[in-house]
TrEMBL record:
Response regulatory domain: residues covered: 8-124
Protein name: Two component transcriptional regulator, LuxR family
Organism: Thalassococcus halodurans
Keyword DNA-binding among UniProt keywords: yes
One Pfam entry name: Response_reg
Keywords: DNA-binding, Phosphoprotein
Domain HTH luxR-type intervals: 143-208
Single GO term (MF): DNA binding
4-aspartylphosphate found at: D59
């Protein structure tokens, strides 16, 4: 904690409403001082200019982040930077990868205000946070014969196909690039023995996967 006895928190998120809500939640606490920025580049420059933040919270999918590369860039700046990831769409695999790479924590955007405040204090104190229920939520579909042929990300893409989504929409939902979705689509076609997205969706539905 800084000399002022206040935790200094920097929140970077490109959604105005969420950014305002986080500032409102955290700013009500007498021991927390919060600043917000709207993209990764602004966060990077802010930390570089003034490294005395107890915690930097980065939205996983905001402009400039490039997945977890943004987190790594701030961690690599001179000083000791505690960086947490906040996301509404990132998968369990992303959360686990972030923690393995030294993230202060992973915070789902579904977290309640009270839980969020507790999580921020926990991370700023030097602990690593992520909701246990997020990491341990059951995934019964992984026992499905069709699911066993696919990676977790291919499963996510297949789910998008069953919902009639375009590659662009799937990419947006999963916070990945559209060419990456196209690659996953091509690979899952081969693995489950289909020629197009309609056949893939039909098989997934007929076999009770989604």
């Amino acid at each position: 904690m800084t000399e002022s006895s206040q935790l200094r928190i920097l929140v970077a998120d490109d959604h105005d409403l969420l950014r305002d809500m986080l500032q409102l939640y955290l700013g009500k606490e007498p021991d927390i001082s919060v600043e917000t920025v709207a993209d990764f580049n602004a966060a990077f420059e802010r930390v570089k200019d003034d490294p005395v933040f107890d915690l930097v919270l980065l939205d996983y999918s905001m402009p400039g982040m490039t997945g977890l590369e943004g987190m790594q860039r701030i961690q690599d700046l001179p000083g000791d930077h505690r960086v947490g990831i906040i996301s509404g769409t990132a998968t369990r695999d992303v959360a686990q990868e972030a923690l393995e790479k030294g993230a202060a924590g992973f915070v789902p955007k579904t977290l309640s205000a009270k839980s969020l405040i507790n999580a921020v204090r926990f991370m700023a104190a030097g602990e690593q946070f992520t909701p246990i229920e997020f990491l341990r939520a059951p995934e019964p579909e992984r026992n499905h014969p069709l699911a066993q042929k696919l990676s977790r990300r291919e499963m996510d893409v297949l789910k998008g196909l069953t919902e009639g989504k375009s590659n662009k929409e799937i990419a947006r939902d999963l916070d990945i690039r559209e060419p990456t979705v196209k690659l996953h689509v091509k690979t899952l076609y081969r693995k489950i023995g289909v020629a197009n997205r309609t056949q893939a969706a039909l098989i997934a539905k007929e076999q009770g996967l989604y």
